[in-house]
Amino acid sequence: MTTWDRFLDTFFNGKVMLKYLPDILWGVVVTIELAILIVLSGLAAGLALALLRSLAIRPLNWLIIFIVDLFRSLPPLVIIVLMYFGLPYAEVSPSGFVSTWLSLAFVLMAFSEEIFWAGITSIHKGQWEAARSTGLSFGETLMNVVLPQALRLTIPPLTNRTIAITKGTALGTVVAVSEILGAASSAMSNSYNPSPLMMGAAAYLVLFLPVVVLARRLERRFAWKR
Amino acid sequence: MTPQPIVDARAVHKHFGTLHVLKGVDLKVAERELVFVIGPSGSGKSTLLRCLNRLEEPSSGSILVDGIDMLDPKTDINHARRRIGMVFQSFNLYPHMTALGNVTLALRKVAGKSRAEADRLGQAALERVGLADRAGHTPGQLSGGQQQRVAIARSIALEPRVMLFDEPTSALDPELVGSVLEVMRSLRESGMTMVVVSHEMGFARNAADRVVFMDDGLIVEQGPPAAIFEKPTQERTRAFIGQIQRH
Asked: Rounded to an integer, what distance in angstroms lies between the CA atom of residue A129 and that of residue A150?
């Protein structure tokens, strides 16, 4: 056996790969489920917080800023672990899947709130004044004039952050979620062979490369044209 | 009996922190009157204008527009503002909408018109400012002068009782000023009540009914354009007129 053959036998072992393919595929499904849930709930909650913040109610805004800063500074892994191993003491026992989903959704909420908020505040005061001078209410101005412009500005930072946080689904491994990385690493320890990890890497590429490409398209499509 | 003025502002004061910007201004504007407000920068003329539709909250005083008490907390300010058009120095068109979209937004959301009805009224308003053929263009595709005319259309579509102009031509290249003034002139001829803050003295001379000179938060002097420009009675007015006529 040449070195090259030994390398292939170790990292791309056909027999091992075939055996664990179903596990990895199931991991892909779990990752997709998690990712969709995180993106939808995280972005929705982030936007809701940013809109709440625009009402400029002082105590409420302090609370929002505190929550957002907290979730932006804590490592996502810590949040997942706290939720999975800590909450049971409060008589709530979320599954590993739910812990991972909610933790990452909170993190995405925090980051996206800041991005949405930056977008809203970057819209020139004159836009508000023009709309309000025609009799539009605060809410109508926000929804029809300010937010459509703000969302456009937020797309590039938002897609970046969303992809980064969605990749954090791999952290679910520590709380026994058999998403791609979890499935791959347990297959690796069962087979004493790193081939499943290569399959996992391939799965991430297949999953996220199209998302990255799509994000770039989206950014280009919504690039600011004045 | 004199008819009720459209704008009746009395003893309006405005403080920005420690800055006393308006020091008790009285301004009455009669129906169909064009009042031109001039004065050095920082004299409070823009602030006065912005107090009239409460974009700026006056510190004290009273403001009636078309009989509605603008400063009464019980007044539905959004409803009141619908009858007060405002045109800004920087146009402030909504960049994500077409010209027609800019004009019809308030028609649909505030005046409660259907989309078809709003489009019809919006198209008519664009027609009045000579931009019917630009309805589908976004602000980015329009020149400054065209943008400002769309902004005027956005206001007149709501059939306001009075129009406020806050330096409407100051951000325009000189060759584009004429088209905006032309639209303002035709508005005036249609009988619109207008309060104009501007440095277009030529327009003031031949279109204004009354020129108001403000300095340091107060109205120093007012009267017909000929009187203010040719025979000002106050030293400060004379100095200001002299200064702008040298250019």
From this structure: 16
3-state secondary structure of B3: coil
CA B234/CA A170 separation, integer angstroms: 78
What DSSP element (H or E) covers B133? none
Q: Specify the pTM.
A: 0.87
Residue B247: how many CB atoms within 10 A of its CB?
Answer: 6
Interface check for A122 against chain B (CB to CB < 8 A): the answer is: no
Of all residues in chain B, the one with the smallest CA distance to A138 is B78
Which residue on chain A is closest to B156 by alpha carbon?
Answer: A134
User: What is the Cα–Cα distance from A191 to A189, expressed in whole angstroms?
Assistant: 6
To probe the interface with A, which of B78, B97, B154 has the most A CB atoms within 10 Å? B78
Over residues B107-127, the pLDDT tens digits come to 999 999 999 999 999 999 999
Judging by DSSP bridges, how do beta strands B210-215 and B34-38 pair with one another?
A: parallel
Give ∠ CA A202-A204-A208 in degrees, rounded to 5: 125
- DSSP 8-state code for residue B4: P
Q: What is the pLDDT of residues B175-221, one digit of tens each?
A: 999 999 999 999 999 999 999 999 999 999 989 999 999 999 999 99
A43 contact partners, CB below 8 Å, separation of at least 6: A108, A109, A112, A158, A162
Longest Cα–Cα distance of chain A, Å, equals 81
* Torsion angles phi and psi, residue A140, rounded to 5: -65, -40
Flag if B92 and A225 touch (Cβ within 8 Å): no
**Best residue in A123, A125, A134 for a mutation probing chain B (most B CBs within 10 Å):** A134
Across residues A158-173, what is the average pLDDT? 89
> Tokens 């600011």 — which residue?
A224
- Secondary structure (3-state) at A95: coil
Give the 3-state secondary structure percentages of chain A, helix then strand then coil, rounded to 5. 85, 0, 15
CA distance A68 to chain B (A): 30
